[in-house]
User: What shape does this take?
Amino acid sequence: MAEERKLGISRENHTKSSSGEQKKGVPDLRTTIAGVEFKNPVMTASGTFGSGMEYGEFVDLNRLGAVVTKGVANVPWPGNPTPRVAEVYGGMLNAIGLQNPGIDVFMERDIPFLKQYDTKIIVNVCGKSVQDYIDVVERLSEEPAVALLEINVSCPNVKEGAIAFGQKAEALYNITSELKKHAKQPIMMKLSPNVTDITEMARAAEAAGADALSLINTITGMKIDIYKRKFVLANKTGGMSGPAIKPIAVRMVYQVAQAVKLPILGMGGIATAEDAIEFLMAGASAVSVGAMNFVNPYATVEVLEGIEAYMKKYQVEKLSDLIGVVE
Amino acid sequence: MKRKVTSKVISQKEISPAIFDLWLETDLAAEARAGQFIGVFPKDKSTLLPRPISICKVREDGKALRIVYRIAGQGTREFSGLREGDEVQIMGPLGNGFPAEAGLGKKVFLMGGGIGIPPMVELAKEIKKQSDDNTVIQSIMGYRDADTFLSEELGKYGEVFIATEDGSVGTKGNVMTAIREKGLEAEVIFACGPMPMLRAIKSYAQEKGIPAYISLEEHMACGVGACLGCVVKTREVDHHSHVNNARICTDGPVFEAGDVEI
Ligand SMILES: Cc1cc2nc3c(=O)[nH]c(=O)nc-3n(C[C@H](O)[C@H](O)[C@H](O)COP(=O)(O)OP(=O)(O)OC[C@H]3O[C@@H](n4cnc5c(N)ncnc54)[C@H](O)[C@@H]3O)c2cc1C
Ligand SMILES: Cc1cc2nc3c(=O)[nH]c(=O)nc-3n(C[C@H](O)[C@H](O)[C@H](O)COP(=O)(O)O)c2cc1C
Ligand code: FES
Assistant: This one.
């Protein structure tokens, strides 16, 4: 309760601060991505938080800047065989295979659920062809409660021999410009780290009209059970996430922030407020907590409280005073 | 409500080689039931994910839980070093649990294989507590060898039949060999154990036309239904996933055998 009140004050303060009378010592946590204002920069990473229902038992969803949902496709996807997850040193591998109930169920169940809360909704979109993505984006344009679309381009492009859309600048440019034609909400392209030069991808997305970027998605990895002489994951490879990938993610956020003007939602191994602040300083306007939700189901709110405490302690008045300040 | 909490070790002992019996003081116990599990967090930061371990027993006052586990890798090895008074982070109670009420007034088989035996203790206790004169509990437990951990304790709730792979105690073979050899009959089955055993139980139950509630295992990440890491194929389209996949950590771990493709 006391914590909610704390946030209440800072929300009140937002209105004041825009008229220039910010109360001393109450940091302004608001942040903006592609014209959408969020009450704070702490979000959830797609696929690690469902549509919020499961973690609603642990955290007050009203406190989050946004809930970023699990990837949704035009039709239900069954996903990969199990085992789908494996632990690795300081993180995990996953090969869920984008199991999702399809856009119809999502619109009927998940969106109304999230609408009950005072948080923004960002929908993560996946597909196997450009048309799949267009179908989902068009359906979502009927729903004004959806603030932003995060486009997962790490899905295999079936037409291109299953190379992910996000692994070739040209394919990324094409899908971005196509989706721009159909999307009502701003689109945020979620970049894959499994590329030679992430700035090339960022520039391609920017040139095609993307409104924002989010990064990083998981880093492709593999684990072998040496006693069984078998792959641990049924899919053989899986995406690595968790604290062990954080330095790579921070580096990529920094590089992308230097290369393009688009706002960035940063993620990759965030466990604490200190981690989140690194991403902000590297150039991210907001952050997502992913795999660490599994380890600490309260992580999102703890990160938020930690950022606020840091800002108070070091007298940072507004969040934008932290974004990209590393030198 | 599921919660992640700090619990305190009351006691731990090795009851069989590499099998540990750990009592934890935690108020999560008040909400826990047979067949549910907890996520136990290793302290070592390189091993992040919660280890799913079944609830073996709930203390009557609802303030302590018991788990019995085998050292299987890094996390369980760390747990085996826990001493009285140590703190350990746990999350729970997780999963649906066994429908103990389905055993009331019936002839019940509790079937456990190896490290699938621990949840049968709390289940036996729950069925026994609510039982009437018509309830008959028969425990059929499968072990590798003469280390028949928990079998004596299960004897408090009903007759126990033991099968060992090496034939050192009871029937030589597995739990299925034991029920055939002893000519045992039941109207409902509850089971937890390795997949081949669960498959055999599923086909046995179908043959007999009786329900079998089986507890499944899968590698997990979140343990709370969010990551979709732990699915099992289902016969019907699942209400949550809208594909033929249910989440073992939340829709299970206990399923009616006919509902899942194993
Ligand atoms: C619902 C459920 C209930 C369980 N109940 C018990 C119990 O009562 N007693 C008991 O001894 N064991 C139980 N297990 C198995 C137990 O979870 C694993 O033995 C344990 O996670 C191994 O962890 P580790 O760190 O020692 O092994 P490692 O091999 O080092 O673990 C690496 C990773 O793989 C996972 N993992 C490894 N083996 C399994 C497995 N068999 N099932 C699921 N995840 C696994 C670990 O959780 C961890 O994330 C249960 C499993 C499930 C799913
Ligand atoms: C289990 C799991 C499922 C994921 N599913 C998706 C998804 O559906 N769409 C997507 O864009 N990213 C998905 N991701 C990637 C995360 O959103 C995030 O980019 C990545 O895990 C890095 O952040 P982290 O280290 O904090 O987890 C998933 C990650 C995990 C661990
Ligand atoms: S372990 Fe995440 S859904 Fe079951």
In short: Chain B is about 20% helix and 35% strand. The pocket of flavin-adenine dinucleotide (ligand 1) is lined by residues A 87; B 37, 49, 51-54, 67, 69-70, 72-76, 115, 118, 217-220, 253 (CB under 6 Å). The interface with chain A takes residues 1-4, 41, 45-50, 91, 218-232, 240-245, 250 of chain B (CB under 8 Å).
